[in-house]
Amino acid sequence: MELASEKPITNADRTFYQLRKDIVEGVIEAGSKLSETELSTKYSVSRAVIREAINRLMSCHLVERKANVGARVVALTLSGLAELYQVREALEGMAARQAARSMPEAEIAELQILMNDHFERVKSGDTYYQEAGDVDFHYRIILGSKNQHLISILIDGLYHLVRMYRVQLGMAGPRVTTAYDEHRNIVQAIANRDEELAELLMRRHILYSRNNIENKLRLSPSTL
Amino acid sequence: MELASEKPITNADRTFYQLRKDIVEGVIEAGSKLSETELSTKYSVSRAVIREAINRLMSCHLVERKANVGARVVALTLSGLAELYQVREALEGMAARQAARSMPEAEIAELQILMNDHFERVKSGDTYYQEAGDVDFHYRIILGSKNQHLISILIDGLYHLVRMYRVQLGMAGPRVTTAYDEHRNIVQAIANRDEELAELLMRRHILYSRNNIENKLRLSPSTL
DNA sequence: CTTGTTTTAAGTGTCGACAATTTAGCCCTT
DNA sequence: AAGGGCTAAATTGTCGACACTTAAAACAAG
């Protein structure tokens, strides 16, 4: 995933993005230890750069560090997933409400165009949709809230962890078309400036999504 | 403010806490530039330590940095205050709801004892209450939610910024007794395990608090 | 005097080395 | 053989120096 606003300037930026990607995608496995010296050789940068990257990853809740001991990639747990989606429900619900209030008409129009594009992909059974499409949808709603704190908490903080759960627990199943309909309805509520409904639908959408993941976990024990 | 869980281990910890305190209390004024070399001499640590501290302050949204240029303390603005309290309303509302669901009986009992203590202070006109007491109250509700993400976002992330606004805009006025009553009612709702009411009262409490600050700002132009 | 360019200095980004702490292995004691 | 304390290796925390970028000062041309 690449966000328009995330252009690496310094080496630390690049390393941070790379590390984050490798953690989210499981190239560096969940729960494993992050050795600074090891990483510095692997990514061809100094330890200072690695340390800064790790510090930033801590802010994202992707790694945890104990002083004088070291950093570990977070472990994926059922309770952690539940807590994460609880917060998401509240925050993205609020984002949808704010978007219904503050999103400029032009941005809503663009969002509707995006939805049409998604429709084509869903129709043709494009698996692309599940991952990037969903992210893109939520991403735009969040930005539409126009609340800097909210944007930062969700985009910089929680979203990569959400993706980590989704990628590593193999979310590819078919909630695609039903999720698409939910997206569509949320956009409609925002276009109608119906704050109440936008929040309600978004909260429900995320709740469904959570139930979907948890059911999948109950069926295939996975490694949790 | 000192939180039980925040015991400085490394030099970077100490420096981070000190810097944060100085920023929140206005010793380092809002909007001012943070020179790494200057700070490193002032706080008697190396630039690496200062850099780590600044990075952590960025996570708290207390400073902003531009690559190759430097870091500045955030500016206090009316819109920023509004956005902050909007997010607070959603998150602390959720915290109150979760606390009503998950807070252990023993913790609720302690909270009620704390409220009695606060009552004594309010009765005797203790100005201590306004600051530390309020923080302490909210702090406990947040911890009572038992949601790690929520706790981290609020305590590590937003709370110090909230305090910064309150301290620097001179919140000493009398919302003390009425705020106390609101606190009391929230605790009661939590004790009754009334999730709905706990969230509602907390949201309203924060909304009142926000109105109070904004009114105060309208009366005394301040420097915003 | 103004504008655009070059130079220069101040400040950040990065690095390798050293100091302090933790952990694991070894030895000694019981 | 089991447990505790000591030693040594590995890892993190901290430091000062160097490289690079940016912004301001000095300068030249119009």
TrEMBL record, chains A, B:
Keywords: DNA-binding, Transcription, Transcription regulation
InterPro entries: GntR_C (IPR011711), TF_FadR/GntR_C (IPR008920), Tscrpt_reg_HTH_GntR (IPR000524), WH-like_DNA-bd_sf (IPR036388), WH_DNA-bd_sf (IPR036390)
Entry's Gene Ontology molecular function annotations: DNA binding; DNA-binding transcription factor activity
Domain HTH gntR-type positions: 9-76
Coiled coil feature spans: none
Protein name per the record: GntR family transcriptional regulator
